[in-house]
Amino acid sequence: xxxxxxxxxxxxxxxxxxxxxxxxxYRVNGFDDNQVPVLITDPQxxxxxxxxxxxxxxLVNYLKNDHTRRKRVGxxxxxxxxxxxxxxxxxxxxxxxxxxxVGICCEGVVxxxxxxxxxxxxCMVPDxxxxxxxxxxxxGSDTLSGSYKMNADIAMLAEKPLTERAAYFEEVFENxxxxxxxxxxxxxxxxxxxxxxxxxxxxxxxxxTTSGAFHALMTWSLHLAGRCVDCRNCEKACPSHLPLHLxxxxxxSVIYENFQEHLAGVVTxxxxxxxxxxxxxxxxxIM
Amino acid sequence: xxxxxxxPGCSAHGTSEExxxxxxxxxxxxxxxxxxxxxxxxxxxxxxxxMTENLAYAxxxxxxxxxxxxxxxxxxxxxxxxxQRMKVTKVHMDENPELAKRINTTVVEEGTYKGTVDVKSMLxxxxxxxxxxxxxxxxxxSLAGLKVACYYGCLLTRPKDITKFDxxxxxxxxxxxxxxxxxxxxxFDYKTExxxxxxxxxxxxxxxxxxxxxxxxxxESGAHAIVVACPLCQSNLDxxxxxxxxxxxVKYDIPVFYITQLMALAFGYPAGxxxxxxxxxxxxxxxxxxxxxxxxxxxxxKPIKAVEAESEDK
Amino acid sequence: MARVGVFVCFCGxxxxxxxxxxxxxxxxxxxxxxxxxxxxxxxxxxxxxGMIRDAIIQYKLTSIVVxxxxxxxHEKTFRKALSDAGMNPYLLEVANIRExxxxxxxxxxxxxxxxxxxxxxxxxxxxxxxxxLHEISVPVTKRALVIGGGIAGIQAALDIxxxxxxxxxxxxxxxxxxxxAQLDETFPTLDCAQCILTPKMVDVASHPYIELIPYxxxxxxxxxxxxxxxxxxxxxxYVNFKTCTGCGACWQKCPVKVANEYNxxxxxxxxxxxxxxxAVPNKPVIDAEHCTMLLKGKCGIxxxxxxxxxxxxxxxxxxxxxxxxxVVVATGYDMWDPTPYEEYGVGRFKDIITSLExxxxxxxNGPTNGVPVRPSDGKVPKNVVFIKCVGSRDEAKGIEYCxxxxxxxxxxxxxLLHHKVHDSHAYVFYMxxxxxxxxxxxxxxxxxxxxxxxxxxxxxxxxxxxxxKLMVRGEDAQIGQVVEVEADLVVLATAVSAPKDNPNLARLxxxxxxxxxxxxxxxxxxxxVETAKAGIFLAGCTxxxxxxxxxxxxxxxxxxxxxxxxxxxxxxxxxxVSSINNEYCSGCQNCLNACPYGAIVTEDVAIGHGSKDLRxxxxxNEGVCQGCGSCVAICxxxxxxxxxxxxxxxxxxxxxx
Amino acid sequence: xxxxxxxxxxxxxxxELIAPPNWEPVIMGILxxxxxxxxxxxxxxxxxxxxxxxxxxxxxxxxxxxxWFLIKSLQTTADGVLVSGCHPGDCHYISGxxxxxxxFLVTKKLLNFVGFHENRxxxxxxxxxxxxxxxxxxxxxxxxxxxxxPLHLYKKENxxx
Lengths: 287, 314, 657, 161
Known about the structure:
The complex is a heterotetramer.
Chain A: H1 4-16, E1 22-28, E2 35-40, E3 73-77, H2 79-90, E4 99-104, H3 118-121, E5 133-135, H4 152-159, H5 162-175, H6 181-185, H7 201-204, H8 210-223, H9 233-237, H10 245-259
Parallel strand pairs in A: 1-3, 3-4, 4-5
Antiparallel strand pairs in A: 1-2
Chain B: E1 2-7, H1 17-29, E2 32-36, H2 48-51, H3 53-69, E3 74-77, H4 80-95, H5 97-104, E4 118-121, H6 122-130, H7 132-138, E5 147-150, H8 160-163, H9 173-180, E6 184-185, H10 204-220, E7 225-228, H11 231-239, H12 241-248, E8 256-258, H13 259-266, H14 284-287, H15 307-313
Helix pairs in contact in B: 1-13, 3-4, 4-5, 6-7, 10-12
Chain D: H1 15-18, E1 27-32, H2 36-45, E2 54-59, H3 67-75, E3 80-85, H4 96-113, E4 121-125, H5 131-148
Helix pairs in contact in D: 2-5
């Protein structure tokens, strides 16, 4: 998977036609072959753009940035990224007319060790669902009603005894340093002011303790329930390497299996699962 | 030349041979080539679906799977019973892929069921794929003068959700085809009543009673003949007619034609090729009406006139 | 620093027998915010309330906790006590130590006392976060809109107008009267429908407080209870009603004939017409779909014969706007179309008619001068078969519900048939005879005896033609046999169905409707005339099938509701509603989805002080908000606060024990 | 990942090891005003007895219940929570309980996933007429939680009240 040439051409053309103010893409970080996001404003710099299977980050996150807000932006999205873009559009955070979206039919990206990422092997929506231009060959996978791939970690943990799970997660939350990098890296955490940081913070307990981390991360994952697109930006950003995807995938599997909803963000205008309901939702867990 | 996958069914080779052979004549004129399903099997009608669900689905499914190997997208079926079994299976399989997968395991040697072939009765094929206008164009010898009662029986248009063709209570497709041939279709309210088919052998009295009512209503409607598109209808109304006449003490003398026989006749095939001698009730009397000018129907009385409207006119 | 006063009630022995009240008082005194705590036998009594008033003043209390019975019982009483002492009544919290402690833990006084202490701690903690709230007063436009001019709309309009409240009555057709104007006689008393309806119609036209807008439709409703703005499209009538005298010269000379809707298409009307002789207003309108002058520009006869010059072919649709405070929806019903009954030959046999067609035939002012005739040949029928439940109670072809009125009107029809054609015989195929109502069962019994009607219990499976007769084949379940009846005329008691436009109207008004299209009431038992949207009420068959007495009762109930709503100059509203903090709102608009009342809209606000850059945020209309808090829990940014149940209050309760 | 799971298992969910003598659980009951709170009042007026462990908080509607109320309760004072609302279709606010139902299921499963026993988070629909049902529900929840013992998860460093 290498669309470096195509993306450079598209960016150059967009700048030449004056259609965009800034292009959000990837560049090689400079000391190894891993990549970092780059915001290009000068057409001269277009040659810095690359796109390979090392282009891991979800660039939609940069749309909540002040450098891109209210500007005309070109950006590159993979399947998962496009879903978060879809949700941003649905939740009125960005205007479609300000964007030029280069969609990728993604074949999966790799982590720093060169291993295919777990969310890529599990990926149900490899092709960008929003785009002005689509690069690559669409996989043709059924994004709306395809069968759900249960995350292996979730399945493994679900089978463990409760005490083991509790102990495991207690360590997870203990290792959290409450740096909020997960929140900042998430494209869907765009709130003007996060609930954890507000005056009610004492109520929310944002303290840098295990119970504070537990509270913050649980609240965070519930706020992303039915919206998380499994791009794993949070996990890549976490300095403590916490397995944050577990919380999101757990919610996703419950929602997908119980509520007959599409995966988050595959349909434009389709809001997260918590913002609608069906009369047929399960009722058997309620006395 | 159009091509059509054909499922003859067992009766086409026996009791309803005249249906089969005239159908082939008609399709020759209409420029349609029939492709028999290779190695077709029994549709399972009347016995399989009361015994086991699996068998009732598996038998038609094997035919459907075999039909999918031919390139045509439509399967035409002469016999109404075969059509019914095939259509029910197709609709249920398409609605429920899980069931299709399960039934498919029974006939897995033949291949995987894909649901690519549509199932139509020949009547439906004539009406939807050929079209009444095309049929009208092919008529060389008009049947004007012949009054027919079109009898659809129970299976061709019902159940509505399965067949999705014509009205389940008062269908008109065959009537329109007959009119296209030049014949007059009478207003016949018993066109979908039961003929007693399944009791033909086991409880003939029921058949005599029910088919007798159909014949009586056909006579009442002024028809010279009954037209059908189902072998069982034909055999009950034709073969049982002498018994019915004896039982009721009425002389009906109404021959029962297959729609294809009349089409072939109108398309100009000589009567000798249409296997009329296979009929129990002689057909000559009815066919003699062809060419006779019908009396002009009595003018329908003016509908009631509103009192108020009349007073205004003055 | 909050200064809380706690008042623990004995409730006679109700609390004191099972909870150690003095111990509770001692315990709450230890809470540092509690500056005063006491006990009394009956806090709700005058002396009890007096203690609260006195303590507020004496100890400069900032919030009050009363530990007593359920807040659903006496919250209002104690709030009033606070008001009387000059304190904001919403600074009160009630700890429910009776229903939730003393009465349910009668065997363990220690546990009950412990629990009562905890409940008091929770209430104290919550009260600390209580804020001063003020009743929302919403100004009211004292004018009602009634949609639909059938008997329901007429009754509602008259009742409201009689209370000297202006009413705008909108009717879609050229005349008010509705379905009742088409009826001949009414069950069970056989009153002439026209005789009892037309005086009311005239009252509407002449009432000083009713503005009748016929031949028009509601196209838009904005605002909230007490403050709606409605847009009404007045269709062009091409006749100047101000100068027209209703002399009738125009419609007598009009050459165009159109099927007459009033008579169910049995006869013809003209292209310029009044629907029926007693129409209100009795002014003709031109049917633009059929008038040759309007279609082709030729004719113009009506303009020539009108000596008042009232005909104006250039007239345009007009949009009327009114400010109103409440809406009564009375759009009535449609007759169900029996076409799916193909086995009856509906549409093929002319001599199968619906009951409303029969009603028109037997009506004295009907198209056949009150004599039922066969549409096919004009002969008077001798054998008439009535089939009930055509569409009703039929899941396969019709609708599941019972239409309620068919049993009764079919009985009435057998009587009318017997009156008009003495040697006739009626057959009724029925499923059940449902004659629940005052005098109904007696009416049915008497009709059966007087008319000699043959009642056959069973469904009809087929109708076919034999000669010029219709053969009706059905089951007589009581003898278990198939029967065939030779009929001259078949009358189908077709179901009552919701008006086809109801879903559109419901969307336009912002109210809900059920799967059949009937508009939904707020509560099936206790709020049967209200909708979930405040200030919109339902009358008549638009809510569910019902007969005339029930329709009239519901219409009068609507009127009472409207009058109650308009009783003061402003409406007082509970202040426990949501509000939005613009600074926190991220504008995701998910709360709009969650609000069942449509109380949330969006607005664009400047981002910074004096900035021209706009940001879209949510905005709550406190007049519409009912205070459920759905939006609060939905809001991730905690931008929404529900007064009285804020996050701080609830969390204070959670962490206080 | 399996290897990462702690070797030392804390007996968090074993009451016999940790529960002090005469220990009584605290159950936070969050009830909607129109159905369940009225139902609990009816339990009182009917003098139907139930265990004294529940502490009742009144909210206007089950849809007002933010999942973090449950998290907060379990982290601070409560050993278990019960949220109760109107039966589906009976919501005083038309559709509130449908929104709530979705959140509850996901919250319950998530809390269970990270180590809370599923019986610690319970839901019920209790109408204003179901006084006896409310008592039954409280009985069941109390029994369930007594079996589970005190909750210690994430309570180690309780912050200022």
